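[User]
Protein folding is very new to me. Any chance you could explain this protein sequence and its structure tokens? I have pasted everything here:
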Amino acid sequence: MTPPDQPNILLITTDQQRGDCLGLENSSLLTPNLDYLAHSGAHFRRGYSECPSCFPSRRTLMTGMAPAAQGMVGMRSAPWEPPFTLAGELTRAGYQSQLVGKLHLGEPGRRFGFEHMVHSDGPYVPEDAYGRWLQRIHGRQEIEGGTAHGVDVNGWVGRPSHLPEDQTHTYWCISQALEFLHYQRDARHPFFLHLSLFDPHPPLAPPSSYYERYINRELPPPLTGDWSEGPQAPEKGASTSAWRIHLDEHQMQCCRAAYYGTVNFVDDQVGRLLQYMQRQGHLARTLIVYTSDHGEMLGDHNLYRKCWPYEGSARVPYLIWASPSLGWAQEREIDVPVGWQDIMPTLLDAAGAPCPAPCTGKSLLPLLKGEKESVRDILHGEHAGQYDYQDGHHFLVGERYKYIWYSQRGTEHLFDLHADPHELADLARRPGAATQLQPWRARLAAVLKERPEGFVQQGRLVKGQPHAHLIPGYEADRFFPFL
């Protein structure tokens, strides 16, 4: 039997899901299962991806280390020898550890501490477990895998999938998770199941019934701040993966309907898993974390995709649900800043396992137990320039304000997220803003002062210093020891 002091752990991660894409924050969206986890557990409304793109965020998740501490601050695939991993530490603590779905750490086949993996990074990889399964189901080989509909895997085009619902990547992942729980579960040990879904990452092609549910509904339009730049591409004739474009009303409706439909589909499939776990008694002593590696701008401020410091890209769903038998938080909204680096310390704390000293993240269990009000007052995030080198940035976010500094241009933003949750009014543009900005500049300079790139000189932020995707000559225990 499972040791009574170690809960089962279900970690559900999606890819590219905005923090406001939950029904409890967006009345146009149906996510009853996620709303239940949030309402009956803890909903962290200031949950962020510290480096909002796939590779760096997942390295942060697996090490409990801030992006600069684990060495990657941009979207690059690179060889990696982590000194420890979340999966490895939980396996060491006696957990039966299983990955289902996306790993996306750049080294196919490597387990990074998991005892077993059913690995598929997405519907576009014909050689992985899902791609091979799909070929068997169809009886033919398509080199595009599950993306033969032709929609770009990093684009804004929305349409229904060409596949029936039960052949989609998300459905397959849930089926694999159910098989693990039903056939491979070792009841002598607690389980750690990391269910890692590719959706709602583009291609924006949900099953047809989900697309139809939203295409004729009135959906919230994209928002544009007083600081937003105009589109850099023509409305017609732009690349289908453009990251700065203004779509016409119909194109935008297709894009948003497909994105919302994909989120809705994810929710129903999560519900499928939770219903099975409830029937089988697996929820009796289980801790569930639901989050996403980054968001999606979805046209806000004329921007698309990830890597941006703004709420659509950097803020993510961050839900923690614990079985009532564990005696932790119920029905709580928590507005303090938390990040992906906090997931590993939280899960290790719940498992009664020690957290490796280099981890910069903080256990959130004291918040769930009501023992603390916060674990930090400010969270630091960053991303090297992805679409344009000049877009490299750092951001600081607290319970109320967010400060952004573009490392190459020196451009600054300051947003009051209480009064202006959609970042429409840039306080840095207001008369007399220098006085309000100076404490934030000093705070960011304190965070960056030891960085080898030279972002700080003589106590001041210096624009134009190198901001590469990998920290030059990084040492795991050197950066951010005070975070």
In short: The mean pLDDT is 93. The longest helix spans residues 249-280. The two ends are 38 Å apart (CA to CA). The chain is about 25% helix and 15% strand.
